[in-house]
Amino acid sequence: MIALLLRDLRLAVRAGGGFGLGLAFFLIVTVMVPLAVGPQPALLASIAPGVLWLGALLACLLSLDRLLALDWEDGSLDLLATAPLPLEAVVTIKALAHWITTGLPLVLAAPALGVLLNLPGPGYLWLVISLAAGTPALSVIGTFGAALTVGLKRGGLLLSLLVLPLYVPTLIFGAEVARRGAVGMDTATPLLMLVGISAGALALLPFASAAVLRVNLR
Amino acid sequence: MDLTVSDLTIARGGVPVLAGLGFVLEPGHALILRGPNGIGKTTLLRTIAGLQPPVSGRVTGAEDRIAYAAHADGIKPTLSVAENLRFWARVFGAGGIQPALEAFDLTGLSGRPAGSLSAGQKRRLGLARLLVTGRPVWVLDEPTVSLDTRAVAMFADAIRAHLAWGGSALIATHIDLGLEAEVLDVSPFRADLAQAAGADAFDEAFG
Questions:
Q1: Digit-coded pLDDT (tens) for A77-95
Q2: What integer pLDDT is reported at residue B14 of this predicted model?
Q3: Over the stretch A140-167, which tens digit does the pLDDT of each residue have?
């Protein structure tokens, strides 16, 4: 399992691996929002948590179509399916590698981008906490979507359409944690819901992803 | 332990292609599958490898014992030859990669990115993967595609060594590898397409 994780991380940082692509997209989206909205610090401060969350979510989506498709194209997925690793472990490791290469950099970069959007002082901590708690769910749900569309020509667009609605609960509670944190309100309820969604997705979706993958490999 | 296939019916895209197929593959033996294009050799091998379920019949002795190699070699172009091979060795928890590199004359290429290899060299890397799996039953789908005669001889030697070690091999190929192997022509097991287009396929589509 560690071998698969190391291979995916190595592939991500090698040429054409797409590491940093999501991060750069996140950066550009958040830089463009103030340009579009105009120089209104009060307005930016109030929309900052939502914009940062939406940017992170779209950045996560960007690299999903490569998650399993590349392995499917070069035959690795067939070989992994006949390997001693259970497919449930394969998809979990894939999701973990996706989180490390996409989700984690977003979590770490978000405070710097919060400055661009005039995020109020107390919001930084809660923004990082909410992204750290929510992005694993984005990776796991995304892996499920990637498993559903693996093998389809131009499956990337379909993948986005399938996955975005599934991201809605994570977005609602994640952005709510960041928003409440920014205005100094109690964040316990949305944070618990967010952690619950992540934990539930992590516990259940690998089984669904593996089952779908078995059907798609036939 | 034998690989036993009994009364197997397999389907591709919901249409049965081979029916009533059976054979026994003992350790130390190789079985060559022959038959015209589209008869279902690849489907048969995928079924035996466990990638798709049979329509009916049984495959025993295959669980966690199969090393499968198909048209695609599962090679990552940005990893080096040695990194590709080491990955599969670690996934299968088998030994070192040096014997596999030597068996397919890849030692000199081990530091090269796999993306810069020629088609034949990639194939050799794909076949070297079989050696690092440590699995006893090799299931090979057209393994000699894009290999030159020297590489084919290397491959035949690797199979002989594998059989001598007590492994077995099930190979779909059209060229003569010079192996002492039984040949199974799958043409007589062709499923009756007329019948398939009738009741069965209809039931499957709407059942």
A1: 888 888 888 899 999 999 9
A2: 82
A3: 999 999 999 988 888 888 999 999 999 9
pLDDT (0 to 100) of residue A147: 93
B91 and A74 within 8 Å at the Cβ level: the answer is: no
Between the alpha carbon of residue B138 and those of residues A56, B67, B166, the distances in Å are: 45, 5, 12
In this predicted structure, what is the pLDDT of residue B194? Answer: 45
With tokens 């084919």, the residue in question is: B152
Nearest CA in chain B to A16: B78
Task: Determine the CATH number of domain B30-50+62-184.
Answer: 3.40.50.300
Query: How many angstroms away from the CA of A12 is the closest CA of chain B?
Result: 10
CB B140 within 8 A of CB B170: yes
Q: Residue B168: pLDDT above 60?
A: yes
Cα–Cα distance measured from residue A94 to residue B75, given in angstroms and rounded to the nearest whole number: 17
Amino acid (1-letter code) at residue B178? G
CA distance A102 to chain B (A): 19
Residue B70 distance to chain A (closest CA, Å): 8
DSSP string, A82-130: TSSS-HHHHHHHHHHHHIIIIIHHHHHHHHHHHHHTT--TTHHHHHHHH
Q: Is the dihedral of CA A49, A50, A54, A60 positive or negative?
A: positive
- Which residues in B lie closer than 8 A to residue A218 (C-beta atoms)? 51-53
SS3 B74: coil
Domain ranges of chain A: 2-12+20-217
- Nearby residues of B34 by Cβ (< 8 Å), 6 or more positions away: B172, B173, B174, B183, B184, B185, B186
Number of Cβ atoms within 10 Å of the Cβ of B7: 12
| Boundaries of every domain in chain B | 30-50+62-184
Q: Which range in A191-205, B82-96, B158-172, B193-207 is most confidently predicted, on average pLDDT?
A: A191-205
